[in-house]
Amino acid sequence: MLISPSILSADMANLKSEVDMLNASAAEWIHFDIMDGVFVPNLSFGFPILEAVRRCTRKPLDVHLMMVQPERYVERFKAAGANILTVQYEACAHLHRALEHIKKLGMKAGVALNPHTPASALEEIANLADLVLVMSVDPGFGGQAFIENSYDKVSRARALLQRKNSSAHVEVDGGVTLANAPRIKAAGADTLVAGSLVFTAAHPQEIIAKLAAV
Q1: CA separation for the pair 109, 98 (Å, rounded)
Q2: DSSP character for 60?
Q3: From the candidates 33, 36, 62, 130, which is the catalytic residue?
Q4: Strand bridging mode 191-194 / 61-66
Q5: How far apart are CA 34 and CA 126, in angstroms?
Q6: pLDDT at residue 140 in the model
Q7: Cβ of 38: how many Cβ atoms within 10 Å?
Q8: Close Cβ partners of 170 (under 8 Å, ≥ 6 residues apart)
Q9: Is 173 a catalytic residue?
Q10: What pLDDT is stored for residue 121 in this prediction?
Q11: Domain definitions of the chain by residue range
């Protein structure tokens, strides 16, 4: 299981030490939730934070754009250090074009599905996606409870990708715990995003190791 801890839950006053902790952990990626206050009712951070973290780590930066018209910023996120760039299915009027642009710039291209968006929405773009992000909470805030229907949705997404001969990652973000991680994996996910679970723990590296070992 790949683990992508979410910087959204990190201590921003001690960001360098938080990234150093992740560098020494079993985390494969570092996850960024970029929120614009329009697509979701919250604001997070932008290019300066991403650039700062890029200088502190060699781990892939897994950037999730929860914003309207994300295609406007693809080149800037590439320049800031993103390795994986995920856009919301619901925010892209021309999703095919956006994914092609991301891949042309050398990044892995991801598609995120909100809880109300069916896995079948991937039908026409599955061959372009390197990652499918199943949102298991309504996006915009950390610390929410896992939506139980997400297990079935992960299974449907994995089945669709297999039918399309796609090797895309299936990532789950929202309400991930040590208790539900095994069931998420059994449903077909291979990547977990964890924010508050990791950064509020007394021993965050142990939590990451346990998640990676499910």
Answers
A1: 9
A2: P
A3: 33
A4: unpaired
A5: 23
A6: 77
A7: 12
A8: 131, 132, 134, 154, 157, 158, 161, 188, 189, 190, 191
A9: yes
A10: 97
A11: 2-212
The strand order across the sheet containing 131-135 reads: 2-5, 191-194, 169-173, 131-135, 108-113, 84-88, 61-66, 30-35
- The CATH label, of 2.10.25.10, 3.40.50.1220, 3.20.20.70, 3.40.50.2300, for the domain at 2-212 is 3.20.20.70
Per-residue pLDDT tens for 150-204? 999 999 999 999 999 999 999 999 999 999 999 999 999 999 999 999 999 999 9
Q: Is the pLDDT of residue 141 over 90?
A: no
Question: Residues near 14 by Cβ (< 8 Å), separated by ≥ 6?
Answer: none
% of residues, the chain, pLDDT over 70: 100
CA distance 114 to 129: 16
pTM of the model: 0.96
- Among candidate residues 36, 62, 130, 173, the one labeled active-site is 173
* Distance, first Cα to last Cα, the chain: 7
pLDDT band at 144 (very low <50, low <70, confident <90, very high): confident
**CA–CA distance, 96 with 98 (Å, rounded to integer):** 6
DSSP-assigned letters across all residues of 139-157? TT-SSPPPPTTHHHHHHHH
Of 119, 69, 75, the closest CA to residue 94 belongs to 69
- Which tokens is 198 given? 């990791």
Residue 91 phi/psi, 5-degree rounding, is -100, -5
